[in-house]
Give the backbone structure.
Amino acid sequence: MTQLLKGVLDLAVLAVLRHDDGYGYDILRRLRAAGLDDVGDASVYGTLRRLFQAGYLTTYVVPSEEGPHRKYYALNVAGRGQLESAGKVWRTFAATMDRLIDNGGDPT
Amino acid sequence: MNALEPQPHGGESRPREGSDETQARYDQVDHTEADESWRRAGDSWRRREEIARYLDGVRSALADLPAEVVEELLEDLPAHLAEVAADSADTLTDRLGSPASYAEELRTSAGIEPPPRHFPLGRSNVMITRGRALLGAADVRIGNLIGYDRAMDFLVLLRPAWWVLRGYALGILLLEVAFGDQGIIPMIQGNPLFGLGFVSLLVIGSVRVGPLRLEPLRRQSLALGQFTTRAASALLVVALLSIVSHSNSHDDISSVNYDPWGGVEDVYPYGSDGKPLTGVFLFDQNGHQITQGNKGRCSDGVYDGSETWFTYPLCPAPGGPRTPLPSPSERPFGPKALIPSPTTPTPSGSPSTPAKEPGAGSPSGAPPSGDALASR
């Protein structure tokens, strides 16, 4: 599962942020709750950084009295666009794989 | 309370001495809650320590990256570690893996090239591949021995210490070249303060510089650059060790207290004509008689312990001194062609042998006067 995850973690993180902004630990929790329990903490943070560098995310800091200030990540317009297109690519790929597994390459 | 008495462990500070009344009052109060909150405070302090240590570990593992990148990567980490710590009682390493492995994963997922562990040679032949495999295996085995996945994970934590060492080594090396005679403590003209100041500057500079990074033009240059810096570092350390070990032995030789004449047991005086003298008294520049040597060592002489004066030679052996004298041309006295015959002085070895040369003091017992010396 870890190998598969490496390829699509970007998409997973984008998807998780679609409806709600989140901070690192929160995003991690959502991913795990969705069933991706193998995802490593460091990987999520690294992916967040990469996505941010690619221009798909914006960040803002929410101050807190008890602990360190939390940095929240949010999808911007480019991010939503990327989620859309990457999602399509994924569905096509998944369908292809399904077919392959069922028919073993037989085009019928 | 006597500070020297052993204190009870556990953070509890019950009064050890004091009246029974105090003890009774103490016993009446319920301390469970106080102890609880002390324990919780201790735990949270421990956790914060753990978080700080984990953070340092990750930072060390990323030390080869530019500072801004490192700060960026670590921006979210303290908050995350705090959340993880608050979540469960497991150690951070149990939940997240070692700091080094976390750093590795972070680096990779952030899209940064992993640090080259071995310098890539480009075209590797079989030997090198095998060597690298062996190193890799040793890496893991030694690592497991000390509680890490790989020994490199541990060594990477020592990176800042290496920066200190190379600054120090460079300082010592420069001082040795400029002033010589360096030991473990650097000195300039024998003054440790200036020496330490100079080396401290270099150490600070080395730590500030941090990881040496050579901007490569091509991939090949990167490998060469890395190899060069590592080779230079190794040479630096070797130079440092050789200087320090050399200084240790150097001290013995150049020490002021070394007495080059400490091994002298007997003196064989020769006159300017190359003839050996006997019954000779020797005096230093202060007029003190020279009594170098041990009369008791004379095996063939008769030593009845009665004589009171040191005359040379102490143990006149037939044939002169044990080791042959330097050749006539090397001797500092007399005509070069003259070869002194090692005529046997009186074999009795008794100090009462009459002196053959003027200037030798009389052995009768009277201390040689200044006139006798002046007459020479």
